[in-house]
């Protein structure tokens, strides 16, 4: 429960004067960011939701200027949702806030413990995805520089 609570920190009032994303908008924008523009049907399938639910959520996002409906770049009939500059800025601001909050919490943890936590959480996520046939796409990892000796 605490991990979930920290995940939705931006939706709380911890950032006075700054608008934060609804949890559904944060998740949908995160998925679109990784996959590129997506149709309502693709988003519904990705989150195992009814299309009507995703339609309501994305309609609010369109109204808020977070996404635009665009023609399918691949020539398909259905329109796709693409992140607007405002949507990208707010997604990154919320993500930065969450990462900053977690960094503050973990600031005194030794590096080995941080790596262990990351490894265990990664394994947990992958196991959940495999168990429920729910794969979350991830950006390609950034190579870690190797120190010269």
From TrEMBL:
A Pfam family the protein falls into: MarR
InterPro entries registered for this protein in UniProt: HTH-type_Bedaq_tolerance, HTH_MarR-typ, WH-like_DNA-bd_sf, WH_DNA-bd_sf
HTH marR-type domain location: 14-114
PANTHER family associated with the record: CONSERVED PROTEIN, HTH-TYPE TRANSCRIPTIONAL REGULATOR RV0880
Descriptive protein name: MarR family transcriptional regulator
Lineage: Bacteria, Bacillati, Actinomycetota, Actinomycetes, Frankiales
């Amino acid at each position: 429960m605490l991990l979930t609570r920290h995940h939705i920190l931006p939706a709380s009032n911890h950032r006075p004067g700054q608008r934060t994303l609804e949890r559904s908008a944060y998740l949908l924008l995160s998925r679109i960011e990784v996959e590129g523009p997506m149709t309502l049907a693709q988003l519904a399938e990705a989150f195992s939701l009814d299309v009507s639910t995703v339609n309501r959520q994305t309609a609010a996002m369109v109204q808020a200027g977070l996404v635009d409906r665009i023609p399918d770049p691949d020539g398909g009939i259905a329109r796709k949702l693409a992140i607007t500059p405002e949507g990208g800025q707010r997604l990154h601001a919320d993500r930065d806030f969450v990462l900053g909050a977690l960094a503050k919490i973990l600031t005194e943890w030794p590096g080995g413990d941080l790596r262990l936590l990351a490894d265990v959480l990664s394994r947990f996520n992958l196991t959940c995805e495999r168990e429920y046939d729910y794969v979350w796409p991830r950006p390609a990892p950034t190579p870690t520089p190797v120190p010269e000796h």
